[in-house]
Batch of 2 targets.
Target 1
Amino acid sequence: MTSELFSLPSLIERLSPAVLIAVRQSGGAEPQRISSLQAGPASQETQAIVGLIDQTLLKPEVTAAQVDALCDDARAFRFAAVSVNTSFVRQAARKLQGSGVCVCSVAGFPLGASQPIVKALEAQVAIDDGAGEIDMVMAIGRLIAGDYAAVAEDLLCLTRLAHARGALVKLVFETFLLNLEQKVAACLLAMHSGIDFVKTSTGFAGGGATVEDVSLMRSVVGNRVGVKAAGGIRSPDDARRMLAAGANRLGTSSGVTIARQIAEGRAHGGAGTGY
């Protein structure tokens, strides 16, 4: 990781012109909706961890009863958000009304290979049904091929629509599939396309969040864009490692387990002082 960071400024300098040209070809940069205060690294204090969790339920076999239980848990533990497929957004929004827990949904999930207009339509339906955040999957093959113009078009098509409706957008990279240059390019494209968070993984393609990837993403985006670590976060220690690396949102299906372990640790005097 040290050698990667050593070369990072020159890599950013080399990639930035092509990224900026691609964004201009798609109509120009879109500003982030997220504030720099919201986007920067989060507190590593133990008591803050639960409030940074996006409790996730995106498997194909999910039932309405499971979504109700998800929302009950999110309300009880005061998670940041629940993440559900678009068909469950309206149900989740009703269950969580007045709770302060956001409803997040997905677009182009989990492959990222849909047409830009299809992703944007998914986002529009989800936002109209009550979603306040959209996790969109990047056009991964386009990025790997170096087709930055196609990636920028994809990002801006959805981001402009979502921002106009008041929603934040998180961009899923699938870091497991990308090399260093592709990860940096993805961060730069996200920054200039108005993306509010960059996110490591869907959890469906292998791999998951790593300290090295989260640290790299934070190094590129600074405090302009949030960083969401997702995939393989199953314990308070996993969460702390991701926060220490620069994440300020945690995507996991283990939020209840993490919250209970934190509560038990505090009750026994073992987890009250933070990282």
Target 2
Amino acid sequence: MATLRKEIPVANAATPVWHAIRDFGQVHTKVAPGFLTGLKMDNGDRIVTFFNGVVARTANSLDPASRTLLVEIQVPNPDGKLMPGTYAQVDLNLPRKDPPLLIPSDTLVVRPSGTLVALVDANNTVHFQNITVGRDLGERIEVLSGLKEGQRVIVNPNDSVQEGVKVHPVSGK
């Protein structure tokens, strides 16, 4: 599944949310009624609320100037937590034949030699691996090559993380 994220203003709390979702490549052809979506709203006090919704319909036409697609997402709001004028982040989970590997964006190490990630091998030893990145999705980055699913990466590697150093990994979950 590919996830597209876009900050959107919430319309009227009693009506479905309408907003133009920015086109990411050719994905717009796959946005169709029935796709499940997720909505994340941050009230500014570090309280994050999650909502589930469904794509109800689309405009079926891209705006050629902005490359956006108008999408209606119906989100149940029985408690009135989605307020008019607030912003939410929408995730459109779209099926892909060959989905890319996604890693947290704060795992990247950018050096003159290229873009790297710090891996931890089976012996808990650090190894820096060159990777080729694809799209930047905000909190996550697509990895096109250089990394395999299941490999362990170090989040926020600092200067003390060096090639060949033994580490004591902890789960980020």
